[in-house]
Amino acid sequence: MLKNIIAKVGKRYNIGKPRVVVGVPSGITEVEERAVEESVMQAGAREVYLIEEPMAAAIGASLDVGEPSGNIIVDIGGGTTEVAVISLGGIVVSHSLRIAGDELDEDIVNYIKREMNLAIGETTAEQIKIELGCAMPLMTEASMEIRGRDLTTGLPRNVTITSTQIEEAMKESIGKIVEIVKMTLEKTPPELASDIMEKGIVLAGGGALIKNLDKLISSETGMPVYVAEEPLDCVVRGAGKTLEDIERLGRVLVNARNRR
Hints:
Number of strands: 10
Largest sheet: 5 strands, mixed
Helix content: 40-55%
Strand order of the largest sheet: 5-4-3-9-10
Strand content: 15-25%
Structural class: alpha/beta
Distance between the termini: 27 Å
Radius of gyration: 21 Å
Oligomer: single chain
Order of helices and strands: HEHEHEEEHEHEEHHEHEHH
């Protein structure tokens, strides 16, 4: 896959071997770092830069990561939720949780199987999450009709499901995400915590689009919470901005081996 992507980019822009920025989880080990670098180099890259995903998300969300004051980013992706406090171009405190969008889809699948005796696929679960997913009750309850396989008869069956039911399905996992945010805030140095109290918490990643998640985190932490503009694209836009301005943003990179 990497070879195909790099070859297409090189051919399209006639640049030969390109420089590549790769987003990696925060807290990556040196062994994992070398493995990623070598894989991308073997795929045809000229230089490889690694950037921690929450840092990339913060840059993509237009936070000034280089300033001495503190910023906090909560990046809820597909496989992991990453929470990081950033100051002076570095991550001061971070936590990673293997609960994110994919786990929420699984929660919905299991809930519908348990409560409605109906089997649905991951694609249907994701669509339900997008349409009805909420962390707190909606002002007006929403509903949608879904189709699955009846576990008793084995035949297709339609049911109507509501946002209240999906809130219940995701409640435990959402609670763990909120807890990891609170845990990160508890470990934040006091001088940076005061900055965050003033600026607020920024949500990025697809999970940021879950309705009322910002309100739930705000009520649990007592801090303002904002959803980044185009949260789905924050990491990739942050990686792109870093590559475009490598001289100024180079210090945010994990690896220094190929840095100029």
